[in-house]
Structures are given as C-alpha cells and as structure tokens.
Amino acid sequence: MSLQADLKRITDTRFCLSCGACSYICSPDKVAMVDIDHVGLRPQFSDGIAPALIREACAVCPTITSDYGQLKDRDDYVASVDKKTETNWGAITGIWEGYANDEELRFKGSSGGALTAIAQYCLEQLDYHAALHTGEDPDDPIRNKTRLSHTRDELLAAVGSRYSPASVCDGLGGVEAAPKPCVVIGKPVEIAATRNAMALRPALAEKVGVTLSFFCAETPPTKATRRLMAEHGVPEEGLETLRYRGYGWPGYFTTRNAGEAPRQHWIYQRAWAYLQGFRPWSAHLWPDGAGELADISCGDPWYEEPDGENPGFSLIVARTKLGKEIIEGAIAKGYLTATPAETWKLDKSQEGLLRKKGSVWGRRLAHRVMGMPNTRFKGLDLFTPWMALSPKEKLASTVGTLRRILKRGLWKRA
Asked: Are residues 398 and 383 in contact, defined by beta-carbon separation less than 8 angstroms?
C-alpha cells in the first residue's frame, strides 16, 4: 500500500473505533482526535506528517491488525477452562464473581465496582503510579475525558460505564512518561491497541503494569446521547452531570441540570437498547467484546436478573498469570469479595456478545465478496462461533450484511 492509502485506511470511518493509539504514537499535536457527531471520535492527521509516523500509526492500529494469540502463547499461560470456552472468550486463567468491599464503589460502579477496586488495589498495595482511564468531562458532560487517576477519590469521580466516544490510548504518553508502572483501563479495542503500541514502543511496555478491560459491544456516537436526552426533554444547556448507569445495579440513565435535582430516566437495559441502534459500522466489525487481550476483564452477570435489591456484582476474568495474581491479592487484602465462578455463568451472562463474535465472521465474508478490506486477526477463531449461530443468524450475518453494504454504499472508500 502507498502511504496515502495507509493514511486513508487508518482514518476510514468504516473501520476506526476511536482508540486514539495513532494520536499517541504520532503525538497529539500531529494527530488530533475529533468528535464527528454521528460517527464518533476519529483521527485528524496534520498536513505533511512524516511517512515514518504514518507507518507507525498503521502498526498500532488495532483495526488494521491485532494478535489474539499472544496471551495464550506465553510460556507462563495455564488455561483454567476447556478449549471451547477459550475459543469463545479468549485466554482465561481464572473466573470469579464478586464485588468491591468499599460500599461506595460497589454502589456507584456499573456492576459491583470490581474493576475500580482492582485498580485501587494496584495503586495502594502494588505501588503503581496511576490508572489511565476515561470518565465524564466535567466541562461537557455529554463527552468523555481521558485522565490519569492517582487516588481512590480520583477513581471514584470517574466510576461507571460511559456509552459515548472515548479514546483512552491518546493518553498513553502519560503512561510512558510516568516514573512507575501504571494501570491501563480501556474498552477491548483500546487494550488491543495498547498491546500493539507496547510491541512498538519498549518504553511504554515497561510502564504498562497491568491492563484492565470490561465486556463491551463498543460505543455509540455522541449523537446517540443527544437523542436520548431529547427523548426525555433534557436540554444540553446547563447540563452538569450525566451518567448511563450505576448507583445500584444496573442503574438508570440519569441527568442533572443546573439548579435542578438529579432526574432518573430509563433503566439501563432500555437506555442501552436505544443507544446501541446508533453504533457505527465499525462497531459491528469488531469481534472482541470481552477484553480478550487484557490481563483482567469484568462484566455484568446477566445470568441473574436484577431485582432492584442486589447492589451489584461482576464476573471477573483473569487472562494472564499476572491478572490471576492481582485478583487473588485484591481478595486477600480486602479490596474484593469474590468466589470462583463456573464457565456457564460467562456463557449465560454474555450471550449477545458471543453471537456478535460469530456474526463478525459472516460480515467479514461479505466484505471479501465486495472487495472491501478486513482487519487482520492472528490467533482468533471466528468460524467456530459463527457455526454455533442459528441458520437465521448465519443468513443475517452474510446476505443481510451484503444488503446493508449495498444500501448504505459502504463499499465505497470513505
């Protein structure tokens, strides 16, 4: 590919998932992450950017290439699950279900505050410098802001899932410059990008102490949140806070405008059902909804229906020896209460993400038929989950995708 073609591939809105890794690798003054209201955050490259930087941006972009065999290929990897579970959910060294012992973290967190409690344990007990993550932008609550948190209170200020565009990897420069290792918390695609960046930049690899992720079907654009607010008559002017869930499990879409008390709107499941309809095409092409390249990933235990009484808990998945050691340490030090969980709970809790993973194989086939590019995945079996789909789902993922490509003109290069 020519450098111009490389640049177009990185910025192609059909594939980009706004991880921000290209901004980190090239520096934010050369690649700005710009919010396109109906698509999401996308990189804007400055004129005259050096060819070497474009090549590095290609190397870190997870939607160009991602290696999903790297954790299982490690010498110290010992699987705790059977091959079928490993194919469906990635490398696994242990599964627990549990919650943060800190009652405030548990209540305010999306599903029991486990991920935040693990990050807090790393900061306070393992002497990590900071945690890189995202949270509500206090100056513009519809949007998110990447930050480095150093304390429990800073973590708490950004607790809870955000269903609007984020680009955690644009903050990796702060991790690389840190005096000690850091926690990196991100969506599955952001962790894949972090792994690519670590392979390219040894100085970064030295400072990424542990990677944490969460089960995620990728984020809708800013337009989705605006529309959800409009559904409830919430004006953007004077908006002071906006949260999508938490404050109990699973929580409500909640807003607060200046001079008003917080207003609860739809329960999480209904709000997410509305928001996900706005997800861009790129979200439907990304198969990893489980944070398969993180050391630890957490997700909602949807095998149990929320009854309004449960304050929340998480399924906690270790994917590396380090991840397992950190979870066990957090339990031992009183940050987490957790017990081993059976694999069926993972399957039952995240059925939609597994169906999506299988569907991606069919969508990629449709791309090939139309002469469209695909992400190069190494060590990722998508065919087996596709074969587990119903005949109707298989047809939708192939013929249905072809129809959408033709109807939306997606075969045209952006």
From this structure: no
* Tokens, residue 412: 């045209």
Helices assigned H by DSSP within 114-250? 114-125, 152-157, 172-176, 188-200, 202-207, 222-231
Which among 301, 364, 317, 300 is positioned nearest to 71, based on CA atoms? 317
End-to-end CA, the chain? 16
Other CB atoms within a 10 A radius of the CB of residue 325 amount to 16
The DSSP letter of residue 407 is H
Structure tokens at 87: 């194919």
Which pLDDT score, from 0 to 100, does residue 297 have? 98
- Please give the helix or strand (H or E) that residue 161 lies within, else none: none
Domains in the chain: ranges and CATH: 83-221+277-351 (3.40.640)
| Alpha-carbon distance values, 341 to 33, 77, 248 (Å) | 39, 19, 22
Facing residues of 315 across strands?
A: 97, 299
The one-letter code for the residue type at 57 is A
Q: What is the pLDDT of residues 323-381, one digit of tens each?
A: 999 999 999 999 999 999 999 999 999 999 999 999 999 999 999 999 999 999 999 99
d(CA 115, CA 173): 23
C-alpha to C-alpha distance for 60 and 33, rounded to whole angstroms: 15
Q: pLDDT tens across 124-140, in order?
A: 999 999 999 999 999 99
Cα–Cα distances in angstroms (integers) from residue 163 to residues 7, 226, 369, in the given order: 28, 12, 32
Token pair listed for 125: 């007990």
Q: Token pair for residue 119?
A: 């990050």
The amino acid occupying position 96 is: W
- Best CA proximity match to 253, nearest among 238, 277, 236, 234: 234
Q: How far apart are CA 63 and CA 155, in angstroms?
A: 29
Q: Is 241 helix (H, G, I), strand (E, B) or coil?
A: strand
Q: Which of left, alpha, beta for 127 (phi over 0: left; psi -120 to 50: alpha)?
A: left
CA 160 to chain CA centroid, Å, is: 13
Confidence of residue 413 (pLDDT cuts 50, 70, 90): low
pLDDT tens by residue, 2-32: 677 778 889 898 999 999 999 999 999 999 9
Residue 391 has pLDDT above 80, yes or no: yes
Single-letter residue type at 225: T
- The beta-strand segments (E) located in 341-383 are 376-378
